[in-house]
Design a protein that fits this description.
By secondary structure, this protein is α/β, with parallel strands linked by helices. It folds into 2 domains: about 110 residues, 3-Layer(aba) Sandwich (Rossmann fold), CATH 3.40.50; about 120 residues, 3-Layer(aba) Sandwich (Rossmann fold). Helix content is about 40%, strand content about 20%. It is built from 10 helices and 10 strands. The chain has a 5-stranded parallel β-sheet, with helices on both faces. The protein has a 5-stranded mixed β-sheet with strand order 3-7-6-4-5. α3 packs parallel to α4 and α7 packs parallel to α9. It holds the Pfam family HEM4. GO terms for molecular function: uroporphyrinogen-III synthase activity. Pathway: Porphyrin-containing compound metabolism; protoporphyrin-IX biosynthesis; coproporphyrinogen-III from 5-aminolevulinate: step 3/4. It comes from Fictibacillus marinisediminis. Keywords: Lyase, Porphyrin biosynthesis.
Length: about 250
């Protein structure tokens, strides 16, 4: 019989509902009681005239850089609305999920970093982008300017907001008081969970493991007061589950 290392553990997933099914299923396979508690939701941004003008001149860009799967989803929707398509541009993707979303649409990937984070993507881009190149970065409303800041002295970087991350209305009373692990896939999810937690906030911060997708999110969890924190070394669903399993195994 397969070992179920998370048996008896309650694990809360804070990512948007439409993105959580796969992670919840994988946690359940490991024996966890997996609970969806979407503290944020994603919505397509309203395209203004300036952004529409950028898309209409898509052919001027040498690179299109995607830092999230949501960026792919909503950028392609906007392209469809304007009647444009990706043609000769080189494509960079921050990680396998983002790359898979592109490949499903028939778009080939030219660059994906070995470490799936924005900083590493920007570093790898700097090695590949030619001086004076034009780079387009479709991004979310809360995304950092990592690519733009890294390439500022090398290329012309244009950022457009293609989706917005917003706080979801949830009740902390949907959750049991005893929660073993809370999974955070972004810094904003840490912030929004804290706002939703109300009078349980201190209890969760003291007793519950904050399992974070990477060091930036873990730092936000630290700032927010979580005493127990871990960060995945592989910034994927599988990586964060492996990190949780290792932590739980060491506790036993």
């Amino acid at each position: 019989m397969k070992s179920r290392p998370l048996a008896g553990k309650t694990v809360v997933v804070t990512r948007p509902a439409h993105q959580s099914a796969s992670l919840l299923a994988k946690l359940e396979e490991e024996g966890a009681e997996a609970v969806s508690f979407p503290v944020l939701h994603i919505a397509k941004a309203t395209m203004d005239s300036e952004e529409e003008a950028v898309l209409q001149q898509l052919e001027q860009f040498d690179w299109v850089v995607f830092t999230s799967a949501n960026g792919v989803r909503y950028f392609l929707q906007m392209l469809q609305e304007t009647g444009k398509t990706i043609t000769s541009q080189k494509i960079a993707a921050v990680g396998p999920k983002t790359a898979r979303r592109l490949e499903e649409k028939g778009i080939s990937i030219d660059l994906m970093p070995g470490k799936y984070e924005g900083k590493e993507l920007a570093v790898e881009l700097k090695k590949r982008v030619k001086p004076g190149s034009k780079v387009l970065v479709p991004k979310g409303s809360l995304a950092k300017q990592t690519v733009a800041n890294t390439l500022h002295d090398l290329a012309q970087v244009t950022e457009i907001i293609v989706y917005e991350t917003k706080k979801a209305e949830v009740s902390i009373h949907q959750l049991p008081e005893k929660v073993d692990v809370i999974i955070f896939m972004s810094p904003s999810s840490v912030v929004y969970f804290g706002e939703a937690a109300g009078d349980r906030r201190v209890m969760y911060q003291k007793n519950t493991l904050a399992a974070c997708i990477g060091p930036v999110t873990e730092e936000k969890a630290k700032q927010s007061g979580f005493h127990k924190r871990i960060s995945a070394t592989d910034y994927t669903e599988e990586g964060i589950i492996e990190a949780v399993k290792c932590f739980i195994g060491e506790e036993k």
